[in-house]
Design goal:
homodimer; alpha/beta
């Protein structure tokens, strides 16, 4: 049997001139090779999960990505919610469309060092539902990870839809080595019930749990300043202790977050001094610590690569001042 | 070719003594037959959907079912959120387990005329995630609809997980003739974006849209009584006008709803005089009107069946007094 050569094109199989003579197996092998090459340029891969929807998972994912970018890192954010892709709307990119090049699709830049990819960029209009079963979603994730020109990234933040079904399974399987998962919950018991499932799921697929974020935690009346017991407080921290995973912090409910999401401006950039932005900043620090601690345990990058990365980080910090 | 006889057992294929000699095709035909028989005893089938999670879809589904039961109807509620099954917790049934009999599984009764079925009743503990792809979920829905002894129902309310993927597709396909869908949203734009997709989806699968419910609509500080602009007001109604579907009503945000959900007591039963319960009651009336209007357009039940049903309804009304 003739030994298979690695495919030499950097083009995906729909745009490659040689694909007519390739078998389905050849094409899959080429896709896997492109995926592997793309992933090798992404230093840290983080999954943002929740058991339940509507706990602010996308808000947390978007603001974590913006916080990391503001610290100077090269960041990508992959909106893996195919049916309800809200990241573009939250970041003011809802009118953008993906552009394909011979080298692959280009993600949409929010800042020079923050790139965004979402199903929303491929839809004909914002009302169009994506009526797909699991295998179709797996296929699109393979393209989003393997055939998109992400370039060199320090962090890829994947915003997953709620639940423990096809999407998180496909993402965990395609990425292979995920650094860790951030589990977002609100403090009320019904949400905690599902978040605990997300922690167990993360362990099942061998993704370390970076920790639990308690969102919409506590609320003060903007008129009289008194505390309102809306979704309660402290449930996320209690769950973290019980499940023996780190607690990353609590983000207070702030109507400005809802308004900023609707207006498409990243909250942490628009209100850097608010208590909620402060909370995001502390959570980002803990995420960085976790990742650095992991690196110490088993360094991935060589010293010359680290030096190059340090230079890149300070260049972006300069640009964002 | 020998003509196939209908299977005469009312048992599912895992419990039937003859199944050893049946082919896979026979078994599937038997499952389809059981599904058809079960569905023929359910007068109205309603899907409760949302594009986005966390908008209170399960809360609306549970309280609609309780409202209908309190009006004397025979009601079933199917929790079709396999990954985050919260209906049992909301109705105080979280410790219940399904019991299998030769005639099928028995749903759990909340009232004599309100039966509940959920994946939660099959899990070893509340932390256990269900890590399933779509085909597994399709299989369990086939069982939940075909091999569960629902009996005669006036209404089956199906609480779907968010999105337009495997679950709503499977449910729409298995039930076949769905009377209509109730789309739940919150007023903020990010949620509306996804709810509009749910409306388009419903039309795509030929399920009439009964209307949009605007949940968490408006909020008054419990201390100073002033209006707080948390998730805004009116977005759901605006979307209904734009998409030309009925608007079913708005439910104000009430911290008591969160508390009651966590405590496992149905809000509309515990606080019948609150503005939110009033809103649920009006929405239930509109649902009934829709269904009666549909019946007039093409009556399903004979007059003797209607008489029997009327008798059953008044019997339950008596019991619930």
């Amino acid at each position: 049997m003739e030994e298979k050569k690695e495919c030499e094109t950097s083009e995906d199989c729909q745009s490659c001139g040689q694909s007519g003579s390739c078998s389905e197996d050849d094409k899959q092998a080429h896709r896997d090779q492109m995926l592997k090459e793309n992933l090798s340029r992404i230093e840290h891969r983080i999954m943002v999960m929740s058991g339940k929807g509507g706990v602010g998972k996308s808000t947390v994912a978007a603001n974590l990505a913006v916080s990391l970018a503001r610290k100077g890192y090269e960041v990508g954010i992959l909106d893996a919610d195919v049916h309800g892709p809200n990241i573009p709307k939250m970041l003011g990119l809802e009118k953008e469309k993906l552009i394909g090049t011979a080298q692959g699709m280009l993600p949409i830049p929010l800042y020079p060092n923050l790139k965004v990819l979402s199903m929303a960029f491929l839809l004909p209009n914002t009302d169009a539902p994506v009526v797909w079963r699991g295998p179709m979603k797996h296929g699109v994730f393979q393209q989003f990870l393997g055939e998109v020109e992400w370039g060199d990234l320090d962090y890829l933040i994947v915003d997953l839809p709620p639940g423990t079904g096809d999407e998180p399974l496909s993402i965990a399987q395609l990425i292979g080595q995920v650094d860790g998962s951030v589990i977002v919950t609100t403090p009320q018991e019904v949400a905690l019930l599902d978040s605990r499932k997300a922690v167990v799921f993360s362990r099942m697929v061998h993704v370390p749990v970076i920790g639990i974020v308690e969102n919409m935690s506590g609320f003060k009346c903007p008129h009289c300043g008194k505390e309102i017991d809306l979704f309660k407080v402290g449930g996320g921290e209690k769950a973290a202790v019980e499940l023996q995973v780190p607690f990353l912090g609590r983000i207070p409910l702030d109507p400005k977050i809802v308004q900023d999401c609707d207006r498409g401006q990243p909250f942490v950039a628009a209100n850097p001094d608010s208590p909620a932005a402060q909370a995001f900043s502390e959570i980002t620090d803990r995420l960085e610590e976790f990742v650095l601690h992991q690196e110490k345990a088993g360094p991935k990058a060589s010293s010359s690569e680290k030096k190059e990365k340090a230079g890149r980080v300070s260049k972006f910090k300069e640009m964002l001042k």
